[in-house]
Amino acid sequence: MKQKAIILFSLFAFPFLTLSAQCPTQNTAFKAGERLTYDLYFNWKFIWVKCGSAFYTMKSANYKNQPALRNDLLFTSNKRCDAIFTMRDTLISYITPDLVPLYFRKGSLEGKHYTVDEVWYTYPNGKSHVKQHFLNRHGEWSEHHHESQDCNYDMLSILSLARSFDPANYKVGQRIHFPMATGKKVEEQTLVYRGKKDWKANDGKKYHCLVFSLLDYEEKNHDEELLRFYVTDDARHMPVRIDFYLRFGTAKAYLAKSN
Q1: 86 in helix, strand or coil?
Q2: Fewer Cβ in 10 A, N or C end of the chain?
Q3: Are 184 and 25 in contact (CB under 8 A)?
């Protein structure tokens, strides 16, 4: 169960675009100290069941002697859900104050299987170099490397970046392709703007939201939606709802508390 999203829509004038090269971006949406709590629901045999909670935090940090922001996202199933499917996902991301990715780790216990995705970013000679480690369910490690002129992101750094976009010129159906590191490889993903929608969160408040979908952009006969997320249509662009489309069903995260 995971997350995600992007760079500077305001620069784009066409509905089919490519994300590239200049990584630093002004952070206009959030600051250290942000804490968000979500209720998790899972569709089990046509019934929506509350299955746990998610906790998102943003705080000041230091990464290899340079100022950074640390994102943490924890998904944890409750006892009721554990009887069916145990889930403990912990995601950590370090980014610079201007939203350049530095490091990412996802430790994932889903069912009886534990996996780890780990990504290190460096930028020698103006290029983006990505070193990736992956621990599979059999306890076997693999290492992968990727180098490109493009910016590369992961599940958390791309979400942080998306929150600083200026939505003034968004067009429904507008697409952006971007490379995302998974721990095993760098994959092409696509973000699609779906439009605006009002939605009432679990904190009892009604929010006017921008809606996006994250698609798998591998060579297929059709787009596969990985998740859909709702962010507030204001300067903060706070995520208030995320729908996950998983291999074993559909899950949803609804905002329950924010600071």
Answers
A1: coil
A2: C
A3: no
178 to 77, 97, 162, 225, 240: CA distances (angstroms) = 31, 21, 12, 15, 23
How far is residue 152's CA from residue 115's CA, in Å, rounded to a whole number?
Answer: 22
The ranges of the chain with pLDDT < 50 are 1-22
- Residue 186 and residue 128: Cα distance in Å, rounded? 12
Quick one: tokens of 128? 């983006």
Q: Token pair for residue 242?
A: 């995320």
* 138-162 tens-digit pLDDT: 989 999 999 988 888 888 888 888 7
Q: What whole-number distance in Å separates Cα of residue 50 and Cα of residue 53?
A: 9
Q: What is the DSSP code (8-state) at residue 153?
A: B
> Tens digit of pLDDT for each residue in 187-201?
887 888 899 999 999
- Cβ-based neighbours of 137, under 8 Å, separated by 6 or more: 113, 114, 115
Which pTM does this prediction carry? 0.81
